[in-house]
Amino acid sequence: xxxxxxxxxxxxxxxxxxxxxxxxxxxxxxxxxxxxxxxxxxxxxxxxxxxxxxxxxxxxxxxxxxxxxxxxxxxxxxxxxxxxxxxxxxxxxxxxxxxxxxxxxxxxxxxxxxxxxxxxxxxxxxxxxxxxxxxxxxxxxxxxxxxxxxxxxxxxxxxxxxxxxxxxxxxxxxxxxxxxxxxxxxxxxxxxxxxxxxxxxxxxxxxxxxxxxxxxxxxxxxxxxxxxxxxxxxxxxxxxxxxxxxxxxxxxxxxxxxxxxxxxxxxxxxxxxxxxxxxxxxxxxxxxxxxxxxxxxxxxxxxxxxxxxxxxxxxxxxxxxxxxxxxxxxxxxxxxxxxxxxxxxxxxxxxxxxxxxxxxxxxxxxxxxxxxxxxxxxxxxxxxxxxxxxxxxxxxxxxxxxxxxxxxxxxxxxxxxxxxxxxxxxxxxxxxxxxxxxxxxxxxxxxxxxxxxxxxxxxxxxxxxxxxxxxxxxxxxxxxxxxxxxxxxxxxxxxxxx
Length: 498
Ligand SMILES: Cc1cc2nc3c(=O)[nH]c(=O)nc-3n(C[C@H](O)[C@H](O)[C@H](O)COP(=O)(O)OP(=O)(O)OC[C@H]3O[C@@H](n4cnc5c(N)ncnc54)[C@H](O)[C@@H]3O)c2cc1C
What we know:
Number of domains: 3
Largest sheet: 7 strands, mixed
Strand order of the largest sheet: 8-7-18-19-20-17-21
Structural class: alpha+beta
Helix content: 25-40%
Number of helices: 16
CATH architecture of the largest domain: 3-Layer(bba) Sandwich
Distance between the termini: 39 Å
Number of strands: 22
Bound molecules: flavin-adenine dinucleotide
Strand content: 15-25%
Shape: globular
Radius of gyration: 23 Å
CATH superfamily of the largest domain: FAD/NAD(P)-binding domain
């Protein structure tokens, strides 16, 4: 019987554990022990269910609140777990997004894809950009594509790319809050090849982002025309979640993997070779001998645990920085919120210099997040722009968020939240900075040569929840194939299952 120790109980670590369980159920001689340093499983998937004093409950997602519907990993696993019917789309009737400009909310013009305009009229009439900025963005249609020397990696920072194609105002007013804010990153440091490689490809293929996104839009519309939804089909929206919140996924994965083999509140502190296998030391002083270790903690924790395994890999891992952020969840009575509530989110560009960088109106974005007559808001602070704010005490963060909601949204001054929760994510957002892909290739090639060690999680090839889940499964594949056990693919869900 081969034994795998999995370090980290986020979606990547639990993805690995559930994969090992399926392999064992299919007859492979393999077992696992998962150790998670927090008392709660799920990592950045963290849902609290909060009761309202007048009845009903709130579904409060403090970490990730959604996943990209187009990526199949979660649908596939949800089907295996029997929870696919609990997946939910967003409420598209409310899907407006606002960008803060001069301390007011300006609606994002229709037809913007990422940050490229694909419809003329909304772009011409929007107050989000000045006229010179609109004309500068139109130049994207004629600016020649970048020449890429054969044999070199096509990469540049998100900031350089957006300024080169669309101009500085597009960067500051839209690209920065959309791609920087959401990733907790500074676009000046972000590697485009590691974060949005499709934009580089688009430039090379179409010579223009506007033409590229227009072609993408036409393709989607043609697909929709060719495959109209059948009666009874689930509504398909860009983002999805689960009705009971996103942690529902990791909770059910833990149940199916087997909670007897999962230990919480216990951290791994060292990994060392022991003969042909490994020994993992825990902060309780215990040691676990095993044949393989799947390392699925945050990238900085992986760097420290790899130190005695391969110092060069540890050094490379330590070069991925991580930014800190916090989310502040609060519910209010509807009468305290006399503003239009048909929107999902509002983003504050860095140039606006506001403490709250993003606001999600959770009760309008998702079904059943709050009882009738209640409004659930989620504010986001921190990220690469302002990490120190995350260390402020809870009551300060709540006050900051309330004062932003009064100024920006029109929350009634003096309104008291029914409840508030602050979730802190210190060093919780890995940053794919310039050189990330080169470092990653070196890490992957070195780890490929270390039998019984595999890395998984958001620090490597995608921070999105489906990518992380995939990476946990791939890590199990790596170590099991070293033992000559090739795992069968799970049946993929139909392409347009949701
Ligand atoms: C506020 C926020 C919002 C986000 N929103 C979205 C979103 O809407 N959509 C999306 O797709 N992605 C989103 N993300 C990103 C996504 O949630 C993460 O990339 C993903 O959940 C990471 O999963 P993981 O398993 O790799 O790591 P984690 O969830 O970080 O899990 C790692 C686990 O390892 C544990 N650990 C660390 N060290 C040790 C040790 N020594 N021993 C034992 N255990 C250890 C940690 O306690 C943690 O539980 C968001 C992230 C944040 C922070």
